[in-house]
Amino acid sequence: MATVQKFEDLEVWKKARILSEKIYPLTFKKPIAEDFRMKDQLRGSVGSIMDNIAEGFERGSQFEFINSLTISKGETGELKSQLYRCFDNQYISKELFDELYHLADEITKMLTGFISYLNQTEFKGQKFKNRR
Fold it and tell me: What pLDDT, in 10s, does the model give residues 41-58?
C-alpha cells in the first residue's frame, strides 16, 4: 500500500467532502435557511468532519491524527442527530434523510476503521520520524 502524501488523497476525506457538497446547499434553502441555529449547526458539523481529518493529517503525528479523527467521528454523530431534527421538523424528506444519513454512517465506519488501523501501526508519523 502506497503512503498517502496529502490529506486530499484520503478516501474518508473525499467522502466527507461529498457529504459537505450535499449538506451545504440545503442551508441556503427554506426552511433551513431561516432556522439560523440549524443552518449554522449543519454547516459547522459537516465542515468540521473534513477539516479535522485534514488538520490531523497535517500535524504529522499518529497520535494527533487519531485524536483529530475521533473529533471528526464525533462531529459526524452530531450531524446525524441534526439530520433527525431536520427530518422530524419536515425540513427534509425521508428520501433525503436516508441518503444523507447513509453517507454520514459510511464516514463513521471509515473513521472507526482508520482509527483502529492507526492504533495498530508502528508508523508514528513524520513529526517523530527521525527521533529516537
Answer: 999 999 999 999 999 999
